[in-house]
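Quick one, tokens below. Sequence please?
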């Protein structure tokens, strides 16, 4: 997929297509609002407590309200985080189910051109990136944004001049963070692709361990693995550089704002235009803004990584899959199979089969003889409907094979390849693999 074509709209459409439950989102947002409100009233109570503070006039009711606000904030915050995490896990599980169903139903030609390890990487590694975004970073972002908005509104009512000092830092930080975020997307995209290629290469090498040993290719594979590891290391270093800039940058801005607020507030308190309680409350609200804002940089970096990860997931989901049920359901027993002028090539200009014709009658035993690479396995792959012939036609009785549903056709034929695959499980499991009916062992 072209990078220009994969936009944020595509990214969010993929997430929304997982159909997150609306009631979970609603309840989580309500809990987040309650959490924010409970947190926002604490500095107001603190302000009143400090401005009128003395041991003799200590307001027990005020202290109790502060404690109650803390308890309510903790409970609703935990509830909100759990619901948003649940939603995130559910969304990612749905994406994984869609991706797995798509992979299983893709045609054989797709697997010929794609490494198995690469698909495994998309299924596992890329979806983990999305899971971390939705389940871990999104809850913090949602609760944080509500807290920031609420705190800023209260601060404007308390002292709009001091609030402006905070807001001045926002556009300055955004101008620097935005290009870094775009760079993170490019690095993440490259990292995910390189991870998929590396996974595919080592999976292939490990699956052919006997060939590696028999060919004395250990040194060659060691060097190939070393190059792949170094490429991954390079992407990791580039990603670390971006993160290393983002973190200190946000910290620098935050500390500058804190120092500015304390200095300006101290002058106002000395001049008698601001009470000590108001300054303390202002600083408490400032920390309610700082803590979420410092996590926003991490969230947006993860958002860029998730966008890069979902690009290849979307590529797989957009692939055309085999339609197993399209066509006729035909009982093929006792019917003649007739092939006429079958031609086929995997690559243009490199024919494997050319004008092959044959008839098979019920009960006949037919042998196809020829050298290795002559097209015998390809011919059976065409009969299995793994591929469509470039020219020619295959008839089952009087019905073209292409008009019979794949499900109906494959359920009535058996194929034992030269190297039969064995799946994990018992011999019975392997013998009955794919059968949709009960087998009588007697």
């Amino acid at each position: 997929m072209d990078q220009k074509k994969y936009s944020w709209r595509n990214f969010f459409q993929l997430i929304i297509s997982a159909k997150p439950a609306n009631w979970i989102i609603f309840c989580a947002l309500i809990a987040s609002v309650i959490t924010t409100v409970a947190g926002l009233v604490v500095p107001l109570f603190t302000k009143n407590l400090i401005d009128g503070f003395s041991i003799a006039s200590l307001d027990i009711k005020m202290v109790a309200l502060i404690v109650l606000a803390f308890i309510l904030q903790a409970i609703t915050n935990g509830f909100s985080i759990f619901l948003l995490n649940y939603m995130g896990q559910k969304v990612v599980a749905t994406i994984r189910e869609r991706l797995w169903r798509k992979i299983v139903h893709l045609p054989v030609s797709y697997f010929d051109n794609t490494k198995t390890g690469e698909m495994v990487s998309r299924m596992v590694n890329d979806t983990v990136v999305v899971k971390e975004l939705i389940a871990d970073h999104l809850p913090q972002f949602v609760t944080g944004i509500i807290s920031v908005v609420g705190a800023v509104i209260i601060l404007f009512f308390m002292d709009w001049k001091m609030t402006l000092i905070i807001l001045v830092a926002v556009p300055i930080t955004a101008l620097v963070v935005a290009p870094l975020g775009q760079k993170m997307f490019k690095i993440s995209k490259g990292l995910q692709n390189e991870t998929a290629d590396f996974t595919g290469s080592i999976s292939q090498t490990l699956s052919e361990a006997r060939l590696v040993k028999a060919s004395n290719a250990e040194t060659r594979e060691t060097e190939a693995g070393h190059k792949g590891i170094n490429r991954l290391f390079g992407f990791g270093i580039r990603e670390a550089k971006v993160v290393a800039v983002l973190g200190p940058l946000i910290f620098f801005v935050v500390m500058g704002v804190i120092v500015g607020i304390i200095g300006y507030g101290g002058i106002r308190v000395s001049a008698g235009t601001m009470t000590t309680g108001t300054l303390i409350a202002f600083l408490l609200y400032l920390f309610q803004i700082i803590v979420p804002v410092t996590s926003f940089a991490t969230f947006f970096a993860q958002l860029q990584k998730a966008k890069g990860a979902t690009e290849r997931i979307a590529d797989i989901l957009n692939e055309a899959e085999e339609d197993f049920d399209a066509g006729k359901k035909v009982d093929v027993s006792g019917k003649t199979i007739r092939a006429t002028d079958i031609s086929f090539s995997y690559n243009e200009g490199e024919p494997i089969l050319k004008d092959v014709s044959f008839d098979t009658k019920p009960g006949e035993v037919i042998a196809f003889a020829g050298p290795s690479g002559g097209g015998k396995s390809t011919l059976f792959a065409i009969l299995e409907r793994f591929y469509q012939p470039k020219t020619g036609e295959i008839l089952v009785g009087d019905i073209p094979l292409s008009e019979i549903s794949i499900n109906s056709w494959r359920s009535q034929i058996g194929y034992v390849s030269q190297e039969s695959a064995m799946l994990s499980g018992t011999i019975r499991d392997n013998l009955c693999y794919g059968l949709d009916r009960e087998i009588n062992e007697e």
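The radius of gyration is 32 Å. The CA atoms of residues 263 and 415 lie 82 Å apart.
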